[in-house]
Amino acid sequence: MELVPLLLTGSLSGLVSVLGHSVFWSGIELLARPQRETYADLPVLEVILHMLTGIGLGLLFWLSWGLAAIVDVAWWLRGLSFGGLCVLGLVLPLTVSTLLVQPQAWRPVAARTARWITTCLIVGLACGWSWARRM
User: Fold this and answer.
1) How many domains does the chain have?
2) Contacts for 49 with CB less than 8 Å, ≥ 6 apart
3) Each residue of 13-71: pLDDT tens digit?
């Protein structure tokens, strides 16, 4: 498997996950006007960070050789396994440490955590599909 298509897949997956969350929260805000917090607005730097994380996760998927140790499974199970490992290694420690420092700010942290979990899972699924299609 070539590296560049996998990096492009990771990058686009990161952007798709952020776009999906923005559309979801915009729909929620249309149905019920929020009193004080909005989760649909994302700074451009956060969108770029999700895209760069997708590139990094695509590189990590390539370096792990597509989780070749997991044999005889469908591409989506391989992708979910990779995404789940990324969530356990990247997202959960960050979330727990943030909540330990600022326990009163759980709503914004939950929204941010949901975006990162979605990014990890979508990148994992996209890389698993791309890997299976090319092999």
Assistant:
1) 1
2) none
3) 888 888 888 888 777 777 776 565 665 567 788 888 888 898 999 899 999 888 888 78
